[in-house]
């Protein structure tokens, strides 16, 4: 017997991870934007992500759509619980998404669209982090409906995860720029990447600690025999990844810091998965309880098996077309 | 203390507002993506530079429209959950996978190849670039396929059963996807998108022809758009009629509201003008054509048409809105057919590029498709009330457990943000359309292009030629 909810949980987790990494670096560019000198440097930074940001963001639609399709109960519980941060995130993404086109069309108002690009990216990243924090700390459920309040998502912990994600995305964005640009812009990016690296690692430690303190169940998972054997490679890998990142930023080839930053994101995500499994609404609803009926999950799975490899294929192709350092003035505008 | 409307009404307003904004962009980008594919194909086939110029001209506009469609659509994909959580829980097993297929087969295709289409001119060869353009065009059509399937299922649900917790469970996917109203709705919507684009393209072409009737790209736009109007607008009338017959069969309440008909009548009249009054259950100030509604709907002079009184008051859609939205859509449809026929006549006379009245009319009708699409959407969505899933799930029972102030607050923020962002977007798009399409000819220009913006004609020309406005 195939465990469809389990397969969907992994697929959904993979989609969200891909989203976080891909949109993470282009949101990170938005977060770093005000620190870049206006003019050519900003144009280049923007053009380094212009051909791919749209595809990156589609993974967010897949995350939402996949949750709706495979786990409708979880979707119906989480969306009202995260109402405010999700709507703020969407509006942030609206402001940011149009900036890609608008800033080129209007010299007089370019500073405003640059500002909306930054604020949109910042708000989207912050709200995603806040939503993550609110998700980890759990939501009130009564039967099949959300039973909590309008402001439940706002806690010191969720604000911390929000800020952490902003710093983490900035790290992804900065290391992306190190990889994709040359000269002065690359030097600036490298400087930011070092600061963000320190911040990101500090937040990984801080949040891991806070999570254990917040939810006693997580302590059992991480510190009990024999699961300890299976889970300890994760923190060890984080230490190694940190060293790799730092080394890359000082001595490595231009692409390696970006890969190291991605590794840290993947490891944090795996750590989170270990803590939360098998809950899709933490400590309330498991993936099996929230699962859509078998015929719905299997119907979509068939198409996913065919389409997902194709998507990964042409996405990789699109990235390959735009490989290498981005040259100044390389827009279509 | 300020009295807020109910959370349900506010959530409906929010959904209506956000989807009304959203639908404008796909209605345009579906048609434009196909148009771009045709233009690039013609350029590759004939080698005529004018097609390439026209392609690049509309590519910039497409990027703008598509960007706005993406961000407004992103909002839609989460709004089901935030404001309509109960609906999501209950219908998720049916419409969730369909929307999942939309993301997998359409969104990724569009987004994945959009980058190559926009930025890949110097990175890939013409054939690969053309494939990317085709993929984007297919993506927009796949997207329409799935979304219309979802919407049609909500209108004419089929192929399901209901389980013990009240969820819709699929019995037959084929019946769900190809539900009774789906083929009509899909054809009607895709034709509407093509017509919408054709009238915008034709209007822009006409605008520039009025300034310079020798402008080749403008001639291409104008001529192609009016072929589309002449061929597709009459086809749309037929599709609309068939769709109406389907609605009569599956959603007679909607038809009764469209006709402003309260009493079931043999040989029902067609009400040209009137004000349906739901309180008094009659249509005031009606100007009627006797027996015509029966003739159109039942293809029988004295055919029976059901009136709204057949159903309890709480099960009826609000007639006034549906009645008038429908008439606005039909009037625009007639105007579109008229312009198409007129253009055929002008073509036969050889005056297509000289008839200034025709060109001015085309400019006037440029935004007509958007109005028709919006009114058509209102007819179909308001006509479905008071249900989200027709006859099965009431709108009032679909709502999230959210409070009115929360919905009101977010609605207000949406309104402000949308008017700023999309207002600016429409302004920039119009400005792109005001730029004269300039054929890339060798040597110095023989005519001075006229443009509203730009200080000197020479400066305007350089701007136009490269299309780079920010330099």
From TrEMBL, chain A:
It is found in: Cell membrane. Keywords: Cell membrane, Membrane, Transmembrane, Transmembrane helix. GO terms for biological process: aerobic electron transport chain. Belongs to the cytochrome ubiquinol oxidase subunit 2 family. It comes from Paremcibacter congregatus. This is Cytochrome d ubiquinol oxidase subunit II. The chain crosses the membrane at residues 6-36, 82-100, 112-136, 156-177, 197-215, 227-246, 258-280, 300-322. PANTHER family: CYTOCHROME BD2 SUBUNIT II. GO terms for molecular function: electron transfer activity; oxidoreductase activity, acting on diphenols and related substances as donors, oxygen as acceptor.
UniProtKB/TrEMBL annotation, chain B:
One of its GO terms (cellular component) is plasma membrane. The chain crosses the membrane at residues 15-36, 57-78, 98-120, 132-154, 186-210, 222-239, 321-345, 357-379, 406-430. The keyword Chaperone does not apply. Keywords: Cell membrane, Electron transport, Heme, Iron, Membrane, Metal-binding, Transmembrane, Transmembrane helix, Transport. Pfam families: Cyt_bd_oxida_I. It is found in: Cell inner membrane; Cell membrane. GO terms for biological process: aerobic electron transport chain. Its main location: membrane. Residues 452-463 have a biased composition (Low complexity). Coiled coil: none annotated. It is a multi-pass membrane protein. Residues 440-471 are annotated as: Disordered. GO terms for molecular function: electron transfer activity; heme binding; metal ion binding; oxidoreductase activity, acting on diphenols and related substances as donors, oxygen as acceptor. Belongs to the cytochrome ubiquinol oxidase subunit 1 family. This is Cytochrome ubiquinol oxidase subunit I.
